[in-house]
Write a structure and sequence with these properties.
Layout (H helix, E strand, L loop, with lengths): L7 H9 L6 E6 L7 H10 L4 E6 L9 E4 H5 L9 H25 L6 H12 L1 H9 L4 E5 L1 H10 L4 E5 L15 H14 L5 E4 L2 H11 L3 E3 L19 E8 L7 H7 L6 E8 L3 H11 L5 E4 L7 H5 L4 E4 L6 H5 L3 H8 L3 E4 L3 H10 L2 E3 L5 H9 L3 H13 L6 H20 L1
Parallel strand pairs: 1-2, 1-4, 2-3, 4-5, 5-6, 6-7, 8-9, 8-11, 9-10, 11-12, 12-13
Length: 423
């Protein structure tokens, strides 16, 4: 029998052989080997608990059991519709699942029929997943993101449920009529299922404020900080100022804004991108937009575990693009903390969460607005000595802004929830 499709009896026999008392089920509709936040959850909790992981791909660390969501419901890597994709889905999962999926895509465009859409999603399309969740022997379910909330809440039973919202789901999409259905459906799910959660966490204080304001929920703030790295600031002493940006190549992020900044900077400055070509067409357009500027280089993406060491050779972690959604405005992404672990100065636009940390710790600079000229002006005024001063400040706060304080929060949260569930 394929991995991830074992019977309930086989699972129960497996659990009976476990030597650890408590079992945590971690659910994320993502590739667990590539999702930094979920990877940190699994890596941390696996040291103290037995872990059952539900996801698209197996995690990079050993777990007691992995359940492959792609085999149960089909989550294609390339979500662009094509005749080949449709035929393959119908062949693998049957006409019933094919038509249910079609209905889900249809109804998510319409700001109505939310109970029906919820039934389609969690009861029919994810029926196999729901049954696996209900039969799993565990003490706590950790549901990641809105795609996990409904099905995990339905399967909760007497177990504790921790919902890691990551970001503010209704704010992930731009405010326009095309996204009205999705945004409204997200609000429906949150209103319906957040009361079932025993605790909720999110990535930053601004987003925690949005959940408190709109849903009356208090969130524990667990930032996206990576593990602490024993590194030191690098001073090459050649007068160059090396900017670097890493992440996903997505059109909505507007990464060309950083290229626009480069057009106002002198020859001291270089810009390196380390991008995962999530949108291959946009990645191609971005490279074309950079033109023949020899100062701008596109590098192959680097595994998340190696990022700080690679970035350590640069000078300034660069994140500059206008926020087009509420989440982009209040977000505090992995890269911000990876820059700190790499002992880099940080240059960003005036987004509230980034400004909060830079003002508190003093390891970088913030432009007054999102005009390329504004950012270019403050970068041009930099000296190598000032850059090293920022890098030294990043070095001094690297431990405080690592995953270690977050780990203590997560463990305290989990231990409390499991203790309450057992009481």
């Amino acid at each position: 029998m394929r991995e991830g499709l074992r019977s309930a009896d086989e699972e129960e026999n497996c659990y009976s052989r476990e030597t650890r008392k408590n079992i945590i089920l971690i659910y994320s509709q993502s590739s667990l080997d590539r999702d930094p936040r979920v990877h940190r959850q699994i890596e941390l909790l696996a040291k103290e608990y037995s872990i059952i992981a539900f996801g698209k791909r197996a995690p990079a660390v050993p777990v007691s059991r992995f359940v492959n969501l792609s085999e149960l419901i089909g989550i294609p890597e390339n979500k662009k519709l094509s005749l080949e994709l449709l035929i393959d889905y119908a062949h693998r999962f049957g006409l019933s699942a094919f038509f249910i999926t079609g209905l889900v895509y249809f109804f998510e465009k319409i700001p109505a029929f939310f109970p029906f859409q919820d039934f389609l999603q969690s009861r029919l399309l994810r029926g196999k997943v729901l049954r696996r969740l209900e039969s799993a022997k565990c003490d706590l379910i950790l549901a990641n993101d809105i795609t996990a909330l409904a099905v995990c809440a339905r399967a909760k039973g007497k177990r504790a449920l921790l919902y890691d919202a990551h970001e503010y789901t209704p704010g992930q999409l731009q405010r326009n009529y095309r996204n009205l259905g999705k945004r409204s459906y997200a609000r429906y799910l949150l209103k319906k299922y957040l009361p079932s959660c025993d605790a909720t966490s999110t990535i930053g204080y601004g987003i925690a404020g949005l959940y408190r304001k709109h849903f009356g929920v208090s969130c524990e703030v667990i930032t996206n900080a990576p593990s602490y790295k024993e590194l030191k600031p690098v001073d090459r002493g050649d007068g160059k100022i090396r900017l670097v940006h890493q992440g996903l190549a997505e059109k909505r992020r507007g990464l060309e804004a950083m290229i626009d900044v480069m057009r106002f900077l002198d020859q001291r400055f270089t810009l390196d991108y380390f991008l995962v070509a999530h949108d291959k067409e946009y990645y191609k357009q971005l490279r074309e937009y950079a033109g023949k500027d020899s100062r701008i280089k596109f590098n192959d993406p680097v595994p998340m575990q190696s990022l700080p060491e690679v970035l350590n050779q640069y000078d300034i972690g660069f994140r500059f693009y206008e926020p087009r959604t509420i989440n982009m405005k209040h977000g505090l992404p992995n890269k911000f903390f990876e820059f700190v672990q790499a002992r880099l100065a940080v240059a960003v636009g005036p987004t509230p969460e980034a400004v909060r940390f830079i003002k508190q710790y003093g390891f970088g600079l913030v432009s007054k607005d999102f005009a390329p000229e504004s950012m270019a002006g403050i970068l041009s005024a930099l000296t190598p000595q000032k850059v090293m001063e920022y890098k030294e400040r990043a070095h001094r706060c690297a431990f405080e802004l690592s995953a270690t304080p977050n780990n203590e929060k997560i463990l305290a949260l989990v231990r409390g929830l499991i203790g309450e569930a057992e009481a």
